[in-house]
Amino acid sequence: MVLWIAWLGFPGAGSVLLPAGWAAEGGTVPESTTPAGTAASEETPAITLSTTELRLLLGTTSEIRAEGLPAGLEVKSWKSSKTERVTVSGQGTKAVVKGIKPGKSTVSAVLSNGKKLLCHVTVPKVKLSKKSITLAKGQELEISLKGTSAVGKWKSSKKKIAKPVVQEGRVVIQALKYGEAEITVTCESVSLTCKVVVKDPRLSKESLYLLEGDSYRLKAKKYSGEIRWTSVNPDIASVDSGGKVKAVAEGHTVIQAVVNGVTLSCPVTVASFRADVSGLRVKTGDLVTIPVSGSASGGTWSSEDPKAASFDEQGRLLALRSGPAKLAYKVGDSVYHVDLLIYGKKADTVFASQPAARKVQFSSLRNLALSSQSRYRFMQGCATDGTYGYFVLCDQNYQNACALIKIRLSDWKVVKVGTGLKIYHGNDLTYNSKKKKLVAVHCEGDFTGISMISPKTLKVTGTIQLDEEVNSIAYNSAKDAYVLGVAGTDRFIIKDASFHTVREFQALEKGRYTRQGMDAEKSYIYILQSRMDDGINRVMVYTWKGQFVTEILLHGNREGESLFHIGKKFVIAYNDSGFNGGNVMETSLKPYYQLRYTSGGAGGSMSWQMVSLSENVKISANTFQRDGYRFLGWKLTRSSDGKVCCRKENGKVAWLNPETTEEKYEIFLVKDQQKIAPMTSLAGDSITLQAQWEELNKEVSQGDKSPDAE
């Protein structure tokens, strides 16, 4: 240690050494033992402490000594100015100093002559290396005191959640259970705490079973901070940064989440499933099996409206009420929704569900009745008086003038043309046989207005303003009443001949369909709807009480605008693709069933066949293709009852429930282009023909066992 020595001069005396650390608080320089005017024969030792500045860590000790004391001068006692911070204990020239609390204190050695030797002691502040810790269950983290070499005494407020473990001077915090705890360390008079949060990160699902195209959002719980999501195979199932899993294709993969230093895994199975009810014709009272395909299994059916439909223990649908039925197939973590129309019980005795149609012998009504340059080009309303058909062509600029064309239905010859009729859009037309008037709804430009038109002169004879905006109209003489569609809604109003409201009803939701024209007879109301994006048109049939009866799908991939019927024949007016005057289709309702071809896993597509209930039919040639496989034939499934075409043990072909165990049978495969007899007696029924395949490197197990018999 370097001691700084101050030389002080006194009058009439020689220089005397003043030791560093000598008390400045009133002390005097000791008398010199050297005679005045003479020099000391040797240097006098300095009287001091072994250190005058000491940095002492909390809880540790250090020894100090008084040095250079001459004979007869002793250390009488040791003292600390702040005993709550620093303590000192000792006898004679030696003492032990200990840090008790962060701060400063002065330790003094009190000499026998009353003087003091001073040492300034600093105990630095003590901190924990962590004030708070977040750990996952099972994790450990080392923690320590900063500002002391002492280990201290450690304890936990909740030992079951987190606890400190001291081993060989190291302190480790162990996370044991989800929750929070306080870890406290005591060192001398200092007590410090560390908040420990224990996370037990886990995913909301241990595994996922999804249908192709479906998605599910995985969530993590009992965690903190950010999560990093990944998929082992994104081609099977992908996951975004928010944990949303998207089922891409059939197969198995694993979704992983890294959170709080832990990697969590969720196995994912993706299965395929399809319930095709587009050709399924279910009537009230029917008990049917929904036709399904795909690898998904073990699911259950349910109905969102038990009053419309329910399911029995075998998963068969019981149709209870005509109208829409919303069905759901729950399998794993996916729900497959199906919208089904249930038809009236006697619908098939009155209507067929998809009539054949033929085009009337003209391509453009405008060109036939006017000219190719005429501004009247948009097909709108149409009606009949039984002998003539009346068709409205709207102005190309949607102005309030329309053309009205009268055609003799027996030979489809134009009889008369009226132009400049101020009926705005002329969206729909009907014929009142009692008043011998055509009645047109204006729609755009004057939604509440309707016009009376003379069928002889084709001129407007009067107008009426209603209290509702309407866009379609139909009249029936037996009821002597009108039915009108309220624009922008699914409401329909029944009005008497004087246009007083009798009742109203709510039709089925249109979905993507746009309501167009209407027609009516004594028992039924016919509402034409068009779905432009798919080129599909249909007629929805209701009773006058608003009860749904059936849906009639129509041929023609253009926008259907209006319709009328005579007996079992319907006339549908369409807009053509270029909106150049429209064309007309005539259709006859007759009993039929459908043949629907499915690929069985191959590529390609095949058109449906429409077959009369009374005629034999030749199966279409297979056009599906599947690399590495050969085509074996067609497996036939009937939609109306879910039965499969089989061959019994005695060789006879029959329709059997595929789950039956009452008799031995094998699936009957129909040959390509084979001629077969009618396979159902139910109008509107459908037969699904699923292509059957076999890998080329395998033996044929069944062969083509189907006979050439019908």
Characteristic terms for this protein:
mainly beta, 1% helix, 6 domains, disordered N terminus, Immunoglobulin-like, disordered C terminus, four-stranded antiparallel beta sheet, 710 residues, five-stranded mixed beta sheet, 2 helices
Measured distance between first and last alpha carbons: 120 Å
Q: Which CATH C-level class of the largest domain is it?
A: Mainly Beta
Helix-residue proportion = under 10%
| Rounded mean pLDDT score | 85
What share of residues are in beta strands? over 45%
In the CATH hierarchy, the third-tier topology of the largest domain is known as Neuraminidase
CATH homologous superfamily title of the largest domain: TolB, C-terminal domain
By helix and strand content, what is the structural category? mainly beta
Overall domain count: 6
